[in-house]
Amino acid sequence: MYTVPDSQAKTAVHAVLAAVLQVRDGRLQALLWQRGRDPYAGAWALPGGVLEEDETLEESVLRHLADKVDVREVAHLEQLETRSDPERNPVRRELATAFLGLVPSDADPAVPEDTRWHPVDDLPGLAYDHEPILLAARERLRGKLGYTNLGFALAPETFTMAELRDLYTAALGHAVSATNLQRVLLRRELLQPTGTLRRYGRGGGRPAAVYRFGTRELEITDQFAVLRPPTITR
Amino acid sequence: MYTVPDSQAKTAVHAVLAAVLQVRDGRLQALLWQRGRDPYAGAWALPGGVLEEDETLEESVLRHLADKVDVREVAHLEQLETRSDPERNPVRRELATAFLGLVPSDADPAVPEDTRWHPVDDLPGLAYDHEPILLAARERLRGKLGYTNLGFALAPETFTMAELRDLYTAALGHAVSATNLQRVLLRRELLQPTGTLRRYGRGGGRPAAVYRFGTRELEITDQFAVLRPPTITR
DNA sequence: CCAAAAGTGTTATGCTTACACCCATGT
DNA sequence: ACATGGGTGTAAGCATAACACTTTTGG
Q1: What is the dihedral of CA B178, B183, B189, B192, to 10 degrees?
Q2: Phi-psi region of B161 (alpha: psi -120 to 50; beta: other; left: phi over 0)
């Protein structure tokens, strides 16, 4: 059991944490590093670090991530909850603001020795309160895939519907029909056909049309699905 | 122009802020207090204060609110964004975590001299970054009214559909049909008839049935409105 | 008897899932 | 030819908005 050294009385520190998600090998995976020292030696942790005096939380996450993942490869970054339980860190009082970061499936950033991608549905033991944070990040992603264009942050610049379907399937954790996915995204005018064709699997089959997302910034497409304002006629 | 006293070099402090909303006089209003001193002397500010060593953010907001609004009257409290721009406070480096608080329309807490309710669609000049925070809080409320039972936090224990319609109208900022509101909420099994009747306006008219919300805790009713898992047949 | 408000019945609409069927390519 | 995927057409389901009409009360 780890104990708090007397010299380190609780001093409030603000940290940032990133749940960096990417679809790799057809599964939604998270970037984690293995702690060498107590507390939680041997456990896996979300990347992050301490907030400095002259930066915003967003700048801080990107700075800390630059060590693990090339910043340019994080296609979407979004603030999640700020955790504040005084007991969440046994060593010192520490607030932590969590972020969701998404990396397109075609990126393969070099990561340090102690760092690895782990499937989110088969996690090792996580340090601190990092497991609920990571699961909350996945829920946020799953929710937003339905009413925004957030798929762009999981997908390469261009892709076929079969490839996109596989990304959505991995992220959502259930079967997705390429047919219906195409219709939903086209109707919402989020996808643009590039005009080119590409072959998907190894076997034969008709070559697939190649698409791209119209914009690579978050757009909400469905906000007022219900209890929407009355339609003004004349 | 206000200048930073030398003695107060930038020291990171963590504050909490609450956007406390209530429907009063048929309008969505926010609780604000008027600053007496610089910076932003004379401007209106969200209630809040500094986070102490041994409390969570949630405990801190409720503690600070206890001065302005009776805690028991805050029916729903929810964390919003944590703001971190180093320049957001000209005096000292200060992070602030914002909250959305909702007060039922039948509560009328006594508030201090410098504190008043202001319609959110007609705000006075606000201090710091409080205006964007307040508007974000309203957006969160508007969004969640559609896919959760959050109406309970705006409504008294019991109410008629006409009363509830007026609350939704004020919060959403557009006309709401009592007929359709009733059907939506009943279908989702959020409302329970109490069996009693009540008269609404002053004129004649049929007395209205009185309802209550089945639960007074947040429930998400609609999460997978779209891109939902395939239905499993057999 | 008439005005006012509540509540019910019914239709229209829009978006989505489900599924049958046709299309293009490799072996 | 036939297997393998891609793509289109179409029907069905479902929730909600819209609106006409009935019910119940006060004056």
Answers
A1: 50
A2: alpha
- CATH code (residue A191): 1.10.10.10
Q: How many CB pairs under 8 A join A and B?
A: 95
Does B81 score more than 80 pLDDT?
A: yes
Residue ending a domain, among A110, A144, A178, is: A144
CATH number of the domain to which B58 belongs: 3.90.79.10
Q: Do A81 and A40 reside in the same domain of the chain?
A: yes
Does residue B122 share a domain with residue B52? Answer: yes
Asked whether the predicted pLDDT for residue A48 surpasses 50, the reply is: yes
The pair of three-digit structure tokens given for residue A203, joined into one six-digit string: 């076997």
The conformation of residue A137, written as its DSSP 8-state character, comes to H
pLDDT in tens, B123-159: 999 999 999 999 999 999 999 999 999 999 999 999 9
Measuring from the CA of residue B197 to each C1', which nucleotide is nearest?
A: C6
Residue A205 gets the label, from left (phi > 0), alpha (psi -120 to 50) or beta, of: left
* Same domain (yes/no): B137, B200: no
CB neighbour list of residue B116: distance below 8 Å, 6 or more residues apart: B31, B32, B33, B34
Q: Cα separation of A180 and A210, whole Å?
A: 16
Whole-number Å distance between alpha carbons of A195 and A100: 33
Are A45 and A101 part of one and the same domain? yes
Do B154 and B137 lie in one domain? The reply is no
pLDDT in tens, A122-170: 999 999 999 999 999 999 999 999 999 999 999 999 999 999 999 999 9
Q: Following DSSP, what letter does each residue of B187-206 receive, concatenated?
A: HTT-EEEEEEEE--SSS--P
Domain assignment of residue B154, given as a range: 146-213
Which of B89, B121, B144 represents a domain boundary (last residue)? B144
- Does the distance separating the beta carbons of B146 and A229 come in below 8 Å? no
Chain-chain contact of B225 with A225 (C-beta, under 8 angstroms): yes
Q: Mark out the alpha helices in A53-160 (DSSP H runs).
A: 57-65, 130-147
